[in-house]
Design goal:
This protein is 85% helix and 0% strand. The chain is mostly helical and 470 residues long.
């Protein structure tokens, strides 16, 4: 759905205005990663433990303190961005129009964290993964049909978030009312403990987003809005293969917190390998197809965006490594190592800034793609070493390693063999190749541990459609 929104806005606004839109939204989103002060992560980390141990007083204190902290922080950060925009940006108008995003998204992220902590998969999906994209889609359709301005597009962005916040408040109140409004439950506040965990998490999350979006920020600074708009389409397409990460993380994060709390690292390691294999099996066929058919992907957009096919392939190359390590990388923050998460993020951000500063002036959008892929790859690999040292966990079994090598090798070898063929010839070849990879991965990779994960997913799927209150 987000890809449809991107298509509508990029077509309606054109590359230059879409570049301005992208830059403004990126700035606001990065600030919003920090503005909850990590309370959204703290809600998952502590909330899952309180829920499991039935510490209702602590859970109630977490809800009340987290709500006030995120509301106040949202107001301060939103107002600060609006007031400082004329001083910090050459064109402050788009930044000021997008500033209200922070006001609404900050408490919304805390609500989503609470829903994840009680394993309300239905609520998480409805509030965060459905209502926001639907709101953005309605706004994008209005921009496309009405040929509206950049300012309208930015306004529709935060209006969609405001509506999602209202919906999230209603949903959370319904799911948590038995704790929140029970006079027999006295709230037990542990704000200091919460902030000691959450503040490093917020800084780490902000640094993480800075690293992920540094290419967009520095491309907007060192290049033109047109080139930024073209690159943004390539980067939006490149993450399609990573979509399963969000769904699996939603399921996996509370499991990590529970297993870490009881120090069951052996079982954690087994589940990590299984989840990683599932992720490789699902994502790699998509990445292979996208790497071999970048012109087909970009044909969905107007001709001015066709120049992004090389940056798209470079970014997909980085996604092969990033996706392979994605589930393992969740272990560091979810096991309580928030300071290490921050240090990792700072190192990656510095690395990314240096690479972008070197490559963008020389190669433009291709340079931004090279910088991003190199940073993601190195960042992923050194964290695998940390995870093994701290938790004795590693995502790559022999089969997972074989999947990675065969997937990357198949993409590179096939590109050399079929790159000169027409799109009509390449498309069926790549489709059959991807299907075979998918079938082989699931047929030969099946293990006993699959059933344990499958049971958890079935349980959460049932809970998704259940009307039972907490």
């Amino acid at each position: 759905m987000r890809l449809i929104v991107t298509w509508l806005l990029s077509t309606a606004l054109g590359a230059e205005l879409f570049g301005s839109y992208t830059f403004a939204v990126t700035i606001a989103t990065i600030i919003t990663v920090f503005s909850p002060l990590g309370i959204d992560s703290g809600a998952v980390y502590f909330g899952a433990q309180y829920q499991k141990q039935k510490q209702w007083g602590r859970q109630k204190g977490l809800i009340l303190s987290g709500a006030w902290i995120t509301i106040l922080s949202g107001v301060i950060c939103s107002g600060s961005l609006w007031l400082s925009a004329p001083l910090l940006f050459e064109d402050p108008n788009p930044i000021q129009w997008i500033a209200p995003t922070i006001l609404f998204l900050t408490p919304l992220m805390f609500i989503v964290g609470l829903l994840r902590s009680i394993k309300d998969m239905k609520g998480n999906a409805m509030v965060f993964q459905l209502s926001i994209p639907i709101g953005l889609l309605i706004g994008a359709i209005a921009i496309y049909v009405g040929s509206l301005s950049l300012e309208h597009a930015l306004s529709f962005y935060w209006i969609a978030l405001a509506i999602s916040l209202i919906f999230g408040l209603w949903w959370a109140r319904r799911r948590l009312s038995s704790r929140l409004y029970d006079p027999r439950i006295t709230p037990s506040y542990h704000t200091k403990e919460l902030l000691q965990y959450s503040l490093p998490q917020s800084l780490a999350a902000m640094v993480f987003r800075l690293t992920i979006w540094m290419d967009i920020i520095m491309l907007g600074w060192l290049s033109s809005n047109d080139e930024l708009g073209i690159y943004r389409i390539a980067s939006a397409l490149a993450v399609i293969g990573a979509l399963p990460i969000s769904a699996l993380s939603t399921i996996f994060n509370p499991i990590i917190a529970e297993l870490v709390s009881v120090k069951d690292h052996v079982r954690l390691n087994t589940i990590l390998k299984t989840i990683t294999r599932w992720l490789l099996s699902v994502s790699f066929p998509v990445l292979i197809a996208m790497f071999l058919l970048p012109d087909l992907m970009l044909s969905l957009f107007s001709t001015e965006y066709q120049a992004g096919h090389i940056p798209l392939q470079i970014l997909i190359g980085g996604q092969f490594v990033w996706i392979s390590c994605a589930m393992a990388m969740r272990l560091i923050p979810m096991s309580g190592h928030s300071t290490l998460t921050l240090i990792n993020g700072v190192i990656a951000a510095v690395l990314n800034i240096g690479l972008n500063y070197y490559f963008i002036p020389r190669y433009g959008a291709q340079g931004a793609a090279i910088s991003t892929s190199l940073t993601l790859g190195l960042w992923s690999l050194w964290r695998l070493v940390e995870i093994w040292y701290l938790l004795k966990c590693f995502p790559f079994s022999k089969f997972n390693t074989g999947l990675f090598i065969s997937g990357v090798g198949l993409a590179l070898l096939s590109h050399n063999l079929i790159a000169d063929l027409s799109l009509f010839v390449r498309t069926p070849i790549v489709f059959v190749m991807s299907i075979i990879f998918l079938l082989v991965a699931f047929r030969w990779g099946k293990e006993e541990s699959d059933e344990e994960i499958a049971k958890k997913i079935r349980s959460k799927w049932t809970r998704l459609f259940s009307r039972r209150n907490a």
